[in-house]
Design goal:
Layout (H helix, E strand, L loop, with lengths): L14 H13 L9 H10 L40 H6 L9
Amino acid sequence: MINYRPRHPVWYSSTPEFSYDCILKTTKQKLELLADEHVLLMFERAERRGISQCSNRYAKANNKYTGKKFNKNKNPVILQYLDINNLYGSAMCKHLPHSGF
């Protein structure tokens, strides 16, 4: 485990980098070091840029809003379409992993 101590703000390349270290200091969260080289390479390969899309070719809804096609004997299925433009902002609202790698 490692305990972070923020450096002087001049040495950070961006404000988010500085604020992340400040949050770690404020919350006293201990980080687990990545000891396995394969896990580190997995993180480096997972970095993506550009357009991202997840889709299925076919989906069938089954809920009370489908009218006569609603089948009460089957589990309800609701379809959802998300058009997210601010992926970075959305990711910044989630909790970051700190251990168990």
